[in-house]
Each structure stands twice: as structure tokens, then as C-alpha cells.
Design goal:
The chain has 318 residues and is of the alpha+beta class. 33% of the residues lie in helices and 24% in strands. A hairpin with a 3-residue loop joins strand 7 and strand 8. Bound molecules: N-hydroxy-L-asparagine.
Length: 318
């Protein structure tokens, strides 16, 4: 029976959904499908917040975080602060399938990837170098403001900027600081549920900073017996609450995906009312929902056996 096959991911990253669905139809394998979907965003630099050439840290370097969580075996593979390797999701799959470990970090994750045959190359581009300059300019001109760490989720402009514009500081604050992780969940035709993430994390982070995305239970979590969840948003806050784990546990208790995701988001905003982020949740039978805070609404992309094409749903935030 193919009736429950599903690909769902955060944001309007519909190219990734399409790519993953094609892989699912071809391979019938949830892990390979998730890898294909997240890799699409890495190579297409979705919103410049996934993959190379985005979110430079304070030193100007782009590093990558990714996770694949297999709900069939409860095994996970992840990389954090991966340097100079473009294929974070694929390296995470290699951690999952070729090691006993769950998470490799930094230069040693790079060494592992090289040993596995991945190519080492710079992740910097003209765009990320330009962004680094604009962000440095911003910090030279404003007092530090902790509220700029997330949102409002609009694509980065590609053109260089006019520093003489009066509103430039405000624009950099509102536009240049966005970050939109891809979190994806796949159910294959055997009912295997896999969840994962890929991101280049937060802009202007202290080198070595790792967010929620590669942390099992925070960025994503899956259990064939229940379903899965994945998250996007301010990872420094989110990873203190394991929202993906919480959403899955709430579905285990019988809550719908929407209600479970809302519990996970609400738990965070009880302590951090300004928190900006979202959780997508799915039952093992393919029912899905989402919840969010800190923006008006949150889009997510879906393809399953009922929908004839990739469809973007939106949920109003709390
Ligand atoms: C992080 N959670 O590194 C990621 C970024 C993100 O929407 O998802 N932004 O904190």
C-alpha cells in the first residue's frame, strides 16, 4: 500500500519537496528521500540559509549543521559546525549508516567526511563575503540588540547595498538576519518515518556556535510507532526545550499533530515570549500540522499520495 507516503518540510522550499517526492517514488526509502530533499536545499542555497555561501559567522566563515533521525531504528546521524564540506545532509547520513556515533562536530567532522570521499572546499562566496561586510557595518553602527537573532524570514537580497541610505541599518536588521532551516519529514511506503534538518545556522554567530538543528529531539525527531516532528527558528532558545521530541511525545499521548506542535511552541514561549520559530508534526499515518510564534504565519510544503502536486500550507501563529 502506498497510501501514506508523505514528504513535508518547513517553509516554501517546494523544490526540495519535489526533489524528495521524486526520490521517494524512485527509491521507496525514507532516509535516501530525506537526504535528497535536504541536499537539494544545500545545493540550491534555499533562502541562502541552507548550504554554502550563507550565514557567515563572526569570522566570515559558513559552517553547516544537519541531522537525519531514523524512526525505524531510532538511530541518528548528525554533523555540527561542519567546515568546508557542502554536503551536510549526506555526511549526516554517513554518520548514521557508517558509525556508532550520533553527532560529529567541526574540523573532525570534516576529516570524517573527507575519509568518506566528500570534497573539501571553501563554503564562502561573494554573497557571503558581502553579507559579512554588511553585518559588520551594522554592528559598528548600533548598540547590540538581542532581539535581532531571528526573523522575519524574507529572502536575502542579492544586490549590494547603498550604505548612504538612511534606512540601511533598519533594513540590515530586518532583512539580512533572517534564517530559515529546512526541516523535513518523510514517510515511505513501508511506513518508515524519518525526520531531519539542514541549515547554515545563525548569522554572525560566535565561531563554533551550534543551534538546535543537528540535536536529536530539538531540530527533529522520529519514531515509526508515533510519527515525527521537525523545527525551525531561534535554535539557541529552541534547543533548551527539545520541541521535536515533545511534539512526538504529545502525539504518542493522543494529541493531533497541530495540537502537539502547539504544546511544543507554547512551552517555549512561556519562558521566551519573543521566541520566533515553528514546529511541523506528522503522525505515522500521515496526518500533519504545525504551530509557530513570532511571525504572522508560517508556510510549510507538502506532497503525499492524496495531493497531486507539492502544496504549500500556512498556519497562523500563536
Ligand atoms: C539555528 N534553527 O541554527 C536554526 C536556524 C533556523 O529559522 O531554523 N532559522 O538556530
Amino acid at each position: 500500500c502506498y497510501c501514506n507516503r508523505l514528504v513535508i518540510n518547513t517553509w516554501g522550499f517546494t523544490g526540495a519537496t519535489e526533489e524528495a517526492w521524486n526520490a521517494l517514488v524512485k527509491t521507496s526509502d525514507a532516509i535516501d528521500t530525506l537526504e535528497a530533499g535536504c541536499s537539494y536545499c544545500e545545493s540550491h542555497q534555499c533562502d541562502f540559509t541552507v548550504g554554502y555561501g550563507g550565514s557567515p559567522d563572526e569570522s566570515g566563515e559558513t559552517t553547516l549543521d544537519a541531522l537525519i533521525f531514523d524512526g525505524k531504528t531510532m538511530n541518528a546521524g548528525a554533523v555540527a559546525a561542519l567546515r568546508r564540506i557542502k554536503n551536510a545532509a549526506s555526511v549526516a547520513k554517513h554518520v548514521l549508516q557508517h558509525t556508532k556515533h550520533t553527532l560529529l562536530a567541526g574540523d573532525q567532522a570534516t576529516a570524517f567526511a573527507v575519509a568518506m570521499g566528500f570534497t573539501e572546499e571553501s563554503l564562502s562566496t561573494d554573497a557571503s563575503r558581502g553579507l559579512k561586510l554588511r553585518i559588520s557595518y551594522y554592528f559598528q553602527n548600533v548598540e547590540p540588540d538581542p532581539t535581532i537573532s531571528c526573523g522575519p524570514y524574507t529572502p536575502l537580497p542579492q544586490n549590494s547595498i547603498d550604505y548612504t541610505q538612511d534606512n540601511e541599518i533598519e533594513r540590515i536588521k530586518n532583512v539580512e538576519f533572517n534564517h530559515d532551516t529546512i526541516g523535513m519529514i518523510v514517510i515511505d511506503s513501508d511506513g518508515n518515518v524519518t525526520a531531519g534538518t539542514s541549515t547554515n545556522g545563525l548569522k554572525h554567530k560566535i565561531p563554533g556556535r551550534v543551534g538546535d538543528s543537528p540535536a536529536p529531539g530539538a531540530g527533529a525527531y522520529a519514531d515509526n510507532a508515533v510519527g515525527a516532528a521537525c523545527a525551525t527558528g531561534d535554535g539557541d532558545v529552541m534547543m533548551r526545550f527539545l520541541p521535536s521530541f515533545l511534539a512526538v511525545e504529545k502525539m504518542r499521548d493522543g494529541l493531533s499533530p497541530s495540537a502537539a506542535a502547539e504544546v511544543a511552541i507554547t512551552r517555549i514561549i512561556e519562558s521566551y515570549p519573543q521566541f520566533s520559530g515553528a514546529v511541523v508534526a506528522v503522525t505515522a499515518s500521515g496526518e500533519f500540522g504545525a504551530a509557530c510564534n513570532g511571525m504572522d504565519e508560517f508556510p510549510y510544503s507538502v506532497r503525499n499520495d492524496e495531493l497531486n502536486e507539492v502544496t504549500v500550507f500556512t498556519v497562523k501563529c500563536i
